[in-house]
Structures are given as C-alpha cells and as structure tokens.
Amino acid sequence: MTARIMDDAGRVLAAPQSYADEAQLHTALAHLRAHAPVSWVDVEGYRPFWAITRHADVMDIERQNDLFTNDPRPILVVADLDEKLRADREAGIGLSTLIHMDDPHHRDMRKIGADWFRPKAMRALKSRCDELAKVYVDQMVQRGPELDFSQEIAVNYPLYVILSLLGLPESDFPRMLKLTQELFGGDDTELQRGESSDAMIAVLLDFFAYFSALTASRRERPTEDLTSAIANATIDGQPLSDMDTASYYVIVASAGHDTTSAGIAGGLLELVRHPGELQRLKNDPGLMGTAVEEMIRCTTPVKEFMRTAHADTEVRGVPIAKGESVLLSYVSANRDEEVFSDPMRFDVGRDPNKHLSFGYGVHFCLGAALARMEMHSFFSELIPRINSIELAGEPELSATTFVGGIKHLPIRYSLT
C-alpha cells in the first residue's frame, strides 16, 4: 500500500485562526502547492481528509461530480458537529441545502431558484443595485471622515439587495444579519453565539423557526418574490418539505449576502493597499469588470468545499480510497502559479482570470451573476467619488474554515 503523503503545512486548512493571518496562510499554501499538492491532513477534533491545493486538481474533482460527491461531507466542520448535522439530515430534520446535495436531487432543487438569477432577472435588479450603491456611498459621506467600512457599509449593502429579492420585511434585516454572522462565524470568538456544537445547532433552529413561519405565510398568500417561488415550488408534482424550503432560504439569505460583503470589504482593502491600482481604475472605469473579478479572486470568500470519493480513485497519482474526503482549497487554487502570473499581485486589469471563487461545474454558485453585479454597481459609484482614502487602523479577518473575510476595516477618507 502506498504511504500517505503528509505535510505539516496542511494543518492550516483545519485551523480557523490561520485564515485570519494572510501571511501565514499563503506561505503554507504555496509550500503545499510546490511540495505536497495532495496531502493527508489528520488534525485533532476533525475527521481526516486530503488537502487539494492545485487549480487543475480542484477543477478535475469538480468535473467528476458522480465520482466525488457532496454528500455526506460538503464542508469542513469539527467531528462532533459533523456527526450531529449528518444524523439530523438522515432523519429528515437537518439542514440540507444545495451544497449538501448531489444530482439528480441537486439539479431539481437548483432549478427552483435559477430563473431569479438569470441575465433577464439581473437586468431588472440592476437599477436597484445602483440605487442602493448610491445610498451607501452617500452614507459614507455623512458618517466620514472615518468609519469601519466592513461593519457599517459592506455588510449592509448586499444584505438589503438579497433580502429585498426574497421579499423579507426591512424590520427583519438586522435579525438575518445577526444569524448569518453566527452561522458563518462559528469559529470566531467575536461572531460566534457560543463555542459548543449545540450553539451552532441553536442558530440553525432559529433560522428554521423564522423561515417555517414565512413558508406558511407565502403558501397561504403568495407574493411576487423569491420566497414565494421557493415556498410554492414542486418537484415531480410534490411540494417541498418544510426542511427543504427552510434550507433553501438559509443558503440564499445567508450566503447570498455574506460572501458578497466579504468581497466588497476585501476588494476595498486591496485598493487601499495598492493606490496605483486604485488610480488606474479611476483613470479607466472600463476596467471595472476585470477589477471586480480580481477582487473576488484575491478575497476568495468561500474558502473550501469538500467532496467524498464514491469509489477508489487517485488524484495526481495519489490513491484516494472510497469513502475518503478531499478538501478543495479555493484560496490556494486562486493563487496557483501554474495559472496566474505573479499570483500574489493585485491587478485590476488581470485578463484572463480563471479564479475558482464561485466553484466550478454543476455546483457553480447560483448567485454569481448577482454578486458580480452588486460589486460592479458599488465600486462604480464609490471610486469616482474618492478624493483620498487610507487605513485608520489594522484590518481584522474572521477566523473560519468555510466562509469569511474582513470583519473590521477602519478607514479614513474624503469623498465628493
């Protein structure tokens, strides 16, 4: 039997605090790409997995969605929480979102929301994104000359966009924000509800309670919003279960804004750190499309997804046994020297830019077009109005192994 390839650098992928230390993380990932691109990671508290750090290997695994399945381990969480969540799903009472599913069920469920994120729908939403972008840049003017951009602007702008799409009342927006931060901040001492697995279960139960009531309301009185589309959807003539509808809302309402807010906050930080690129973008607004893609590449809000081998196979010549899991490191893939020239450089004109921040294949992010449009609208409004901008303190990143980014970004600025 071939000995497993193990490299201590792989331990960073199971250390939430590593994602709050960019220098440490990228040093370790560069080492793995060069010396152990398929590395066995066995860390206390987690079930072992193979770390996949090369762009080409991540894409190959994503393509083979019949061989490498999302079920039963779609993301990296501590072993005891993983067991509880899996048991709940098997009992039909646990979170089961698009990221937990495989085809054909995944394909059928994805179709329910797909029309709301197609180009025609995005064109209809464009004016709303532009309008909200102006609202929030105007707020920056009013609150200046200093603020925490992440907490005061970046988390709220995409929150209003996605929850408006769902049709939720504005009075519930703060509650959704708090629940989302607790959901994705379970490893961060500032954001988490509590340190135990039970605290995360409690967050999910709060989500389910809210959306179960919403489902009942929309089934009784349908409206013209995405919430009604989900509540009244059918598959093979049968309505979705309460758990399926609640799970659908959770992934749209939470990932639909938290990832975008991470991209916006991280994108602004890159522009502040690279004033030459900011000036380049001010001089040539036509670069906004490539600039947004570069922000998304550099921030990589979704750090990883996992897949489980459905049969014995191999990756880059390394045997992977049936039932073993692989962690797809999008952070690493997006800095792969084989794909990106000078990958640690922020370049608003980078083209081509084959980043994997939205995944690849059948699980490509449903809301990718919306995220791109929101960022394009926001920075198109902000950048022409910047007279000066600089850090007013040290940025702070969230501790996570799944979704996250800049949680505090103190800036000092002058806007027109």
TrEMBL record:
<dbReference type="Pfam" id="PF00067">
    <property type="entry name" value="p450"/>
</dbReference>
<dbReference type="GO" id="GO:0036199">
    <property type="term" value="F:cholest-4-en-3-one 26-monooxygenase activity"/>
</dbReference>
<dbReference type="GO" id="GO:0020037">
    <property type="term" value="F:heme binding"/>
</dbReference>
<dbReference type="InterPro" id="IPR002397">
    <property type="entry name" value="Cyt_P450_B"/>
</dbReference>
<keyword id="KW-0408">Iron</keyword>
<dbReference type="GO" id="GO:0006707">
    <property type="term" value="P:cholesterol catabolic process"/>
</dbReference>
<keyword id="KW-0560">Oxidoreductase</keyword>
<comment type="similarity">
    <text>Belongs to the cytochrome P450 family.</text>
</comment>
<dbReference type="InterPro" id="IPR017972">
    <property type="entry name" value="Cyt_P450_CS"/>
</dbReference>
<comment type="pathway">
    <text>Steroid metabolism; cholesterol degradation.</text>
</comment>
<keyword id="KW-0349">Heme</keyword>
<keyword id="KW-0479">Metal-binding</keyword>
<protein>
    <recommendedName>
        <fullName>Steroid C26-monooxygenase</fullName>
    </recommendedName>
</protein>
<keyword id="KW-0753">Steroid metabolism</keyword>
<dbReference type="GO" id="GO:0005506">
    <property type="term" value="F:iron ion binding"/>
</dbReference>
<dbReference type="InterPro" id="IPR001128">
    <property type="entry name" value="Cyt_P450"/>
</dbReference>
<keyword id="KW-0153">Cholesterol metabolism</keyword>
<dbReference type="InterPro" id="IPR036396">
    <property type="entry name" value="Cyt_P450_sf"/>
</dbReference>
<keyword id="KW-0503">Monooxygenase</keyword>
<keyword id="KW-0443">Lipid metabolism</keyword>
<keyword id="KW-1207">Sterol metabolism</keyword>
<dbReference type="GO" id="GO:0008395">
    <property type="term" value="F:steroid hydroxylase activity"/>
</dbReference>
<keyword id="KW-0442">Lipid degradation</keyword>
